[in-house]
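Good day; I would like, with your permission, to put a structural problem before you. The record follows directly beneath this note:
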Amino acid sequence: MNGTLSSLNSPHSAIILVIAFLLGSIPFGLLVARLFQVKDLSSRGSGNIGATNVSRVLGFWPAGAMTLALDMFKGMLPVILLLPPVLAIWADAAGLPSTEVSPMLIWATGLAAVLGHCYSPWLKFKGGKGVATGFGVLLILSPWSALTGFAAFVITFLSRRTGSLSSLAGLMVASITHLILYSTAGYLWFGALLILVILIRHESNLNALLESREKTF
């Protein structure tokens, strides 16, 4: 197999990361809110563009569910397109030799999508919290971690009715599960950066939780 995309150093890899960032930067929450006649989502609820705030302002169904699905999709799509079976199909259809992609590049692509969501150039490098997009990445690359994290989210939400606390609980459980399953993987620091970005985006929520003033549903 040819290794044209096997590392992060090739020009092709840089193009892939930029495309993933731009895909992640699409503010679907803002677009869905406008579809339902809410022109300025940033002035409603918590002001965030993610599925949680869309659900708070417009209800989970259908607006919140649409935002959740679209934010997950933009984390899933760039990762799916780099998976070996998918690349093989593309290469075969184009009559090209197969291309090898390193796990590090695949995880870096997922991280780029999350960064695009959190720091969208279309919103002056502001954005969402990254949970749904990060979940989309994990659902493809580490499904068991994603599922255990989702279970932790649901259990926490049902007991506390707090979106941020539930998201953080799901993130921590998913992270621990992944470390248990893949403790020697060389790409783990990309996963760690992904977690760090989401935690940074939740700084205000963490402060609100510590001061018992976080909004509930």
The chain is about 70% helix and 5% strand. The chain has a mean pLDDT of 88. Residues 2-210 form one domain.
